[in-house]
Amino acid sequence: MSKKALTTGAPKRRRRRTQAADTEGAGENIPPGKTDSSYRSRAEKEERMQKWAIRGVVAIAGVLALLVAITFAIEQLIVPNQAVAVVNGVDITVREFRQQYQLERNQILLQLNQIQSSGFDIQQLAQQEPYQTWISEVNVPDQLGLRVINDMVDDRLLAREAAARDIRVDEASLRQSVEEFFGYNATEVALIGVEPTATLEPTVTPTPFVSPTPTQRPAPSPTPDPAATVEETTTEPTVTPQPTVVEPTLSAEEVRENFEQSEQDYRAYFDRLGIAAETVDEFFVGIALERLLADALVPADGSLLYADVRHILVEEEETAQQALQALRQGESFAALARAISTDPGSGSRGGELGLAYVGNYVPEFRRAIEEAETGALVGPVESEFGFHILQVRRKEERSGSDIEFQLERAQRQELEQLRGSLRDQQDDNFAIFDAWLDYIPRG
């Protein structure tokens, strides 16, 4: 067969592509020593790994987003509604506690700033009350928090007591509490421009923006020692900054506008701090409610009991019994008081306390005076100071201008005694949880 015949006729068998042919054109894209299949397998593997990595990142981001959402829900929806205390079955929530804390703290700061801008030396005032307590509270959050949570409990108890007495805050009493807070007296302002009479001269206190005290509610006043005289128990603080009293140079309309602007500025200040308007409103309602309760306890047109008393104070009941027996046998009261009384004030005066409002004394001593017959020896009467033997020389009821100064003090004392008694009587009706410490706003 010729060579030509061998090259024609039957179909030619296709040659298998060699590795060189397969890689022709790929050239530099395949690393030396690597086959196409192994190269593609590695690329696919890397691609799969990248996909899983992306999926992992997405999954982690989703988990983080979920955690953030859960944290937000806890902080914004769950925590604020948790209870830090309960009074008569009603919770005091974290939200309410935080709001009240911020309100109290910033009221203190406002007052301290006002005092400092008035030229008073804060360092000197820091040695006096209430300034010492205020400064301590703004620097020690736990101290302020403890007062706030206790005040909130007391306020709830007082509100319940007021309701039981059918005492409610109406619009007029609420407005009066706001006006008094800012030093605005509508009656006096109405007299501006009116020709003064021989018995009435208007005095006005226009206050462009008075930073109120941390609380205008009657503040707790320490119960004086039974041995203190009325002069000793009515001493006022050395410095008590108050809105400056000026002659009425503004018109009645201008004074009213200043008052309204002061209230607006005050509310706007707390609004900027994130304190709800409802919290500020409740603060003024509390002031009004306490004023109504105080008036019910000690009516402004009522009278106060004063008594001339002497006493002997000793540490042991047995000593008091022996002293009482000696007095009944004719021993001189004055001589015995000088000899054994542990009250350094009255002891040196023969036990004399003088004529004083009975509300100045601790409750046990006061009750003994109120129940005692004039001239009778009474005792032993136990108080936080020890055991007393007392004798009432005389009693008298005072009213009107004679008790004008003492009346407001008496109302504060009665209100604080009511607070204490409500706590004692309703101990099972309220509880304060330790969790409040974790929810004090800090920073």
Question: How is this structure best described in words?
Answer:
- The structure is a single chain.
- The longest helix is centred in the first third of the chain and has 43 residues, at 36-78.
- Helix 12 packs across helix 17.
- The protein starts with a helix and ends in an 11-residue tail after the last strand.
- The protein is an alpha+beta fold.
- 52% of the residues lie in helices and 12% in strands.
- It is built from 17 helices and seven strands.
Summarize this entry quickly.
With 443 residues, the protein is an alpha+beta fold. It has helices at 3-6, 19-22, 36-78, 94-117, 122-125, 131-139, 141-164, 171-181, 186-190, 230-233, 252-272, 277-297, 317-328, 333-340, 344-347, 363-371, 404-425; strands at 83-87, 90-93, 303-314, 352-357, 377-383, 386-399, 430-432. It starts with a helix and ends in an 11-residue tail after the last strand.
Which features characterize this protein?
alpha+beta, 12% strand, three-stranded antiparallel β-sheet, disordered N terminus, 443 residues
What is the topology?
Elements: H1 3-6, H2 19-22, H3 36-78, E1 83-87, E2 90-93, H4 94-117, H5 122-125, H6 131-139, H7 141-164, H8 171-181, H9 186-190, H10 230-233, H11 252-272, H12 277-297, E3 303-314, H13 317-328, H14 333-340, H15 344-347, E4 352-357, H16 363-371, E5 377-383, E6 386-399, H17 404-425, E7 430-432
Antiparallel strand pairs: 1-2, 1-7, 3-4, 3-6, 5-6
Helix pairs in contact: 4-6, 4-7, 6-7, 7-12, 7-17, 8-12, 12-17
